[in-house]
Amino acid sequence: MASIEQKMANNMNMMGAFSKATELKSRILFTLVALIIYRVGAYIPLPGVDVEQLRSFFEQNSGGVLDMFNMFTGGALGRMALFTLGIMPYITASIVINLMTVASKKMEALKKEGEQGRRVINQYTRYLTIIIACVHGYGVSTFLQSSGAVLNPGPVFQFVTVVTFVGSTMFLMWLGEQITARGIGNGISLLIFAGIVAELPKELALLFENVRSGQSSILFLLAIFALAAALIALIVYVERAQRRIPVQYPRRQVGNKMYEGQQSYLPLRINMSGVIPAIFASALLLVPTSIASFAAEGGPEWVQTMAIYLGHGKPLFIALYAVLIVFFCFFYTNVQFNPDESAENLKKGNGYVPGIRPGKNTSEFLSFVVTRLTTIGAAYMAFVCIVPELFTAKFDTRFILLGGTSLLIIVSVIIDTISQVQGHLISHQYDGLMKKANFNSKRRGGRMR
User: Fold this and answer.
1) Spatial distance between the Cα atoms of 411 and 169, rounded to a whole number of angstroms
2) Could you give the CA distance from residue 196 to residue 265 in angstroms, rounded to a whole number?
3) Distance between CA atoms of residues 85 and 81, nearest Å
4) Counting Cβ atoms within 10 Å, is residue 72 exposed (0-12), middle (13-18) or buried (19+)?
5) CA angle 335-377-386, nearest 5°?
6) 3-state secondary structure of 84
7) Residue 253 forms beta bridges with which residues?
8) Which of 33, 128, 333, 394 is surrounded by the fewest CB atoms within 10 Å?
């Protein structure tokens, strides 16, 4: 009972702090406005496209890789809107640049230069984003003309399409960076999150309509929601889980005072890479599957065969998806966490792990622990993303927005955003206490004088 009352009191304190946190309110407002702008751009159609012809094509090819791409663009692909490419070219460019930081010594040296090196790497990512957006834009314009969905086909339409898609992708990249700097949460992840959530009501309405029309049963619908609820519970549990490495600091003397040793811990998350491996794996897998799907229409027999095997829910698609998720889990964890650097920082701060020698032994111990945690995290992420795919293959049904990838993105982004909001509230409360303490000390000083 006391714990419930304490939680209620903490919630009331948080609400009171939120009402006074003007900076946090402005950040949330900025984020909402940016997301509204993103959603408006997903409804403005591309000039010169026959919308009815395009809609009939997507209805004939629904349930495949196009639905998955459409999910990441928030429905913009199905409407062939200005933001049709979404943020996917930037994600693909980030994958390539991150891989190059490991394969290229020059890029690795830039990464170690700190803030200046990070700016140069970001600039390379932008240049590569433009190139990838140009290739995607040209491919989409060629596909639209070959499918007969263009009112006035020709070089002018292709040029306008490429320029429009490149400009919209760069704008979304800039918008995501602005959300990260001036808003709440990770901007790129929030843009993908907004697109998925915006399409969720339509997918739910489709599921209920299938039940009403007799295409699906009530038990099937309940099974889908039960699976989604179980996956959400698993995601929340694992994303909040930590392995705490104990760290001991010895006694130290400052002047004539002796300070007792302190014990702390180094928190290591089971899934250090977050939602990035699922996004990277989906983005990388969408490139060959999209090409195969578009080229299969009237193409060679081997291309049609590839399109079948790379179809959404097919065994080859599922296997490649699982392999890419596991690879990016280990790769991105290696990029984020450096055992040698962490061990060196502990040694400089006179900290040590009990029972482990500082320096090389600590680095090897941390590397061993992180490898085990990443193995568990990679297995968890592959399980969450693959189970709905197996469900789709088994029952031959659409399960895109209620699938593991979309649920993983939604839950992870919500957890990260809430954590940042709580961090801002705690910082605001701390600043208020410090101002109050300084004010009281000045008053006492004035009375003493």
Assistant:
1) 25
2) 37
3) 9
4) buried
5) 115
6) coil
7) 258
8) 394
Q: Give yes or no for a contact between 429 and 15, defined as CB atoms under 8 angstroms apart.
A: no
Q: Long-range contacts made by residues 151-156, C-beta under 8 angstroms, separation at least 24?
A: 151/48, 151/49, 151/50, 152/48
Count CB atoms within 10 A of the CB of residue 243: 15
Render pLDDT for 196-250 as a digit per residue (tens, 0 to 9). Answer: 888 888 878 877 887 888 777 888 888 888 888 888 899 889 888 888 888 887 7
Amino acid at 135: V
The encoded tokens of residue 376 equal 């568990």
* DSSP state letter for 252: E
Q: Count Cα neighbours of 425 within 13 Å in the Cβ-side half-sphere.
A: 17
Residue 163: pLDDT band with limits 50, 70, 90: very high
Reading the block at residue 324, the tokens are 């890419």
Q: What is the helix (H) or strand (E) element at residue 125, kind and residue range?
A: helix 115-146
pLDDT, position 442: 52
| Residue length of the chain | 449
Question: CA–CA separation, 191 vs 35, rounded Å?
Answer: 7
Cα angle for residues 26, 30, 31 (degrees, 5° grid):
120
Give backbone dihedrals phi and psi of 171, rounded to 5 degrees, phi first. -65, -45
Residues 129, 134: Cα–Cα separation, whole Å = 8
Six-digit token string for 16? 């009171």
- What is the pLDDT of the chain when averaged over all its residues? 78
Task: Tell me which H or E stretch contains 248.
Answer: strand 242-249
Gyration radius from the chain CA atoms: 26
Tokens of 121: 């790497």
Three-class secondary structure of residue 257 per DSSP: strand
254 sits in which H/E element: strand 252-254
Residue 36: Cβ-neighbour burial (10 angstroms; 0-12, 13-18, 19+)? exposed
Query: What is the secondary structure of 400-418 as a DSSP string?
Result: STTSHHHHHHHHHHHHHHH
Q: Print burial letters for 199-214: b (CB count within 10 Å at least 16), e (below 16).
A: beeebeeebeebeeee
CB 178 within 8 A of CB 54: no
Scan for tokens 């929601």, then name that residue: 225
Phi, psi angles (nearest 5°) of residue 150: -115, 135
Give residues with Cβ within 8 angstroms of 97, minimum separation 6: 107, 121, 124, 125, 128
pLDDT, residue 154, reads 85
Domains and CATH numbers, the chain: 23-197 (1.10.3370.10), 204-424 (1.10.3370.10)
| Count of C-beta atoms within a 10 Å radius of residue 147 | 15
